[in-house]
Amino acid sequence: MAELSGSDRILIEAGHSSLQLEQLAVNDLSLNLGEYLEPSWTARKLVDAYRDYVAAGNSNRDQFQLMRRVFTETRGKCNRVFADVLSSHVKGYKYDCAKTMFGPNKDWDAFIRRSTATLERDGYVNTKLNVPPRLVEALASKVLAKFEAAHGSDKLKLTLKGSSGGLPQIKSSSVWLSTFDELYQIAADPVLLSIAQSYLGVPPIFNTPVVLLNSCVPLTDERELAGLAQLYHHDMDRLRFVKLFVYLTDVDESAGPHAVIRGTHRRRPEKLWEDGRHSDDAVLQAGGLEKDEVKITGKAGTVFLVDTSALHKGMHPRSKVRLMAQVQYVSTLFGKPLASVDHKVAQSRTTTNQDIIDSAELVRKYAGSIGVRFMQNYI
Asked: Which terminus of the chain, N or C, has fewer Cβ atoms within 10 Å?
């Protein structure tokens, strides 16, 4: 087993220190939960689970399911309280928006305020920003090459054409995707980090990168739609989060745009708080669809953010494919258990897997340029 270098040891210790800041929030919640929330046995158990997470550095499956249950029972209020308490104990950063990839011609402070206000109100914001074509093309090309290697040239061609024998969806591997510098470049842009921090209340942690290729291969029933996240649902992997989406192909209504029901991160018909998938008919009958459904379209490079604790789905493409990248910005890693493969820096010293070694180099790079907390998931 290779020894950790001095710089890697410092990086890992700094990551632990970032986690320990959350102990202040745990202590606050333990003492004052009754002032923040109506009495709730499950909310109190969630404080205990959060304390155990801070001590262990990871959650278990039971704690994760408890968090999802409390979200539903309290209609999201418990999550907001926990996140607000955390933000009162973790200092924010000042990101240098002069270094953004999106150009110098905006009052970025005002733009960040407007974007945050829209997120708070609607649960999503279409930023009208576009990632530079060179980054979009490079990321799309790398992803498609990996998809071809995994599934074969013929299968990928059928999928891209939407032909019989193609796949309705291809999803990236988190192992090889974490080696793509282009994705970190986009997620680390200071304007996007500033919006995420303003919304979350704390400097965001990079979490759960994924690229999805959705094809117009016909589907036969709702079970297939449910399996592809193409029925309305809410996400709840972390206490508080906002997802960054980037279209890597042009997306109109025929290409399966991302759809969200405005405002449902805060309020929705009672039946729609249930965990699980909801058909369009069920959403319509509950009164949560007609006037508030938004379908987000745009050219390749389009950037939008969604608090996917709101009801959302990917529309199934009708005649085109959709290639889309996403990264989750989170306030804490409490929630869904972390995989051992996420610990890129430590694992890079004990493996011959080139993807993990390459990932670790990018973790070191962005922990140095953005901050250890940004890369906490991967340290």
From this structure: N
- 46 with 132, same domain? no
Q: 53 in helix, strand or coil?
A: helix
Q: At what angle do helices 22-36 and 41-56 cross, to 10 degrees?
A: 170
Integer-rounded Cα radius of gyration of the chain: 21
Of 226, 228, 241, nearest to 308 by C-alpha is 241
Instruction: Answer yes or no: is pLDDT of 1 > 60.
Output: no
Contact 2, 360 (CB under 8 A): no
Q: What angle do CA 114, 119, 122 make, to 5 degrees?
A: 115
CA 262 to CA 216: how far, in whole Å? 26
pLDDT band (50, 70, 90) for residue 123? very high
- 256 neighbors 306 (Cβ within 8 angstroms): no
Q: For the segment 159-218, what is each residue's pLDDT rounded down to a tens digit?
A: 999 999 999 999 999 999 999 999 999 999 999 999 999 999 999 999 999 999 999 999
Q: Please name the residue ranges forming H helices in 106-132.
A: 108-122
- Between CA 344 and CA 377 the distance in angstroms is 9
Q: What is the pLDDT of residue 2?
A: 58
Closest CA to 323 of 179, 137, 153: 137
Does 83 share its domain with 106? no
Question: Quick one: 284 and 162 in the same domain?
Answer: yes
Is there a domain that residue 118 lies in?
yes
Residues 198 and 112 sit within 8 Å (Cβ to Cβ): yes
Buried b (16+ CB within 10 A) or exposed e, 20-42: ebbeebbebbeeebeebbeebee
pLDDT in tens, 224-242: 888 888 999 999 999 999 9
Amino acid letter for position 195: I
Pick the last residue of a domain from 61, 87, 113.
87
- Residue 4's pLDDT band (cuts 50, 70, 90): low
